[in-house]
């Protein structure tokens, strides 16, 4: 019998996971899966559950929660030979991963998507000893976003919370950064470095218009003047032209990136606090297969 594991975070979003768990179970059982439910109680649980799903050769893992839960879930797949397919029921504030894969943001529609026969291979990124699904950021914006609590995020909504963060940072200091990427080096001062795997970052769905989830590239932005982010709008992402063409932005793609600084700089990875610099990023092409809607 095929095995499916639900990894559910009862604290995600507006604490709605409980409501949806039974619906997910029904959808999976109707497909003939034997279903196991694991609920997270705190940090690291989703990673442990997913690691055991890999070791037990489980066929499908469904992450029920926000981008944080998804981030922890995929981290259970690191260095595993057997990696289950991944289903996503987005319950967070931003849900970048679901946005990038056109998985409905409405939980009930996302649950119905679990019936789809279509799967999409998706690149993951490696950051030091961990994995990321969507974005790694280094600099003070990264720090201030990590400091926003789940409750505040739910209250403010994604755009508002990111814009609040940006407003506070207009006079933010630039950090001396050394960025080595595929044999080249960028050296200079910048308040923010962003590495994205998908086109959706912080809910801005067109931030990286050319990024495909399986293009094998890390899309990198050095933001030399944080003020450029002020013209971000949802949908168009930038009022005037695209971020990558902005005069205060350096954009490049790479398969390997090392970012270091002589100062202490913190990072934010998939919306959660990440390791401090230096960071070493690399791409893991088509590392996981994600269940996506039948039709886009
Ligand atoms: N039972 C629990 N109670 C409180 N926190 C939990 C629990 N289980 C996991 N966590 C923590 O929840 C965080 C992940 O939350 P997640 O991002 O999925 O939801 P969210 O914060 O509502 O979403 P978003 O970040 O998009 O607002 C992780 O830091 C994880 O350690």
- The total of helices stands at 8
Q: Roughly how many Å is the radius of gyration?
A: 18 Å
Chemical compounds bound to the protein: adenosine-5'-triphosphate
* Strand proportion: 25-35%
- CATH architecture title of the largest domain: Sandwich
Counting structural domains, the number is 2
C-alpha termini separation: 30 Å
Low-pLDDT parts are: none
Q: CATH top level of the largest domain?
A: Mainly Beta
What do we call the CATH topology of the largest domain? Tumour Suppressor Smad4
Structural class per helix/strand content?
alpha+beta
Query: What is the H/E string?
Result: EHEHEHEHHEEEHHHEEEEEEEEE
What is the molecular shape? globular
> Widest sheet: strand order?
6-5-16-13-8-9
Average pLDDT works out at 88
Q: What profile does the largest beta sheet have?
A: 6 strands, antiparallel
Keywords: ATP-binding, Kinase, Lipid biosynthesis, Lipid metabolism, Magnesium, Metal-binding, Nucleotide-binding, Phospholipid biosynthesis, Phospholipid metabolism, Transferase
GO molecular function, one term: kinase activity
Domain DAGKc: 1-130
Cofactor: Mg(2+)
Description:
InterPro entries: ATP-NAD_kinase_N (IPR017438), Diacylglycerol/lipid_kinase (IPR005218), Diacylglycerol_kinase_cat_dom (IPR001206), Lipid_Phosphate_FormReg (IPR050187), NAD/diacylglycerol_kinase_sf (IPR016064), YegS/DAGK_C (IPR045540). This is YegS/Rv2252/BmrU family lipid kinase. The mean pLDDT is 88. The chain has a 6-stranded antiparallel beta sheet with strand order 6-5-16-13-8-9, with helices on one face. The chain has 8 helices and 16 strands. It is of the alpha+beta class and 296 residues long. The structure holds adenosine-5'-triphosphate. The site of adenosine-5'-triphosphate has 21 residues, from helix 3 and helix 7.
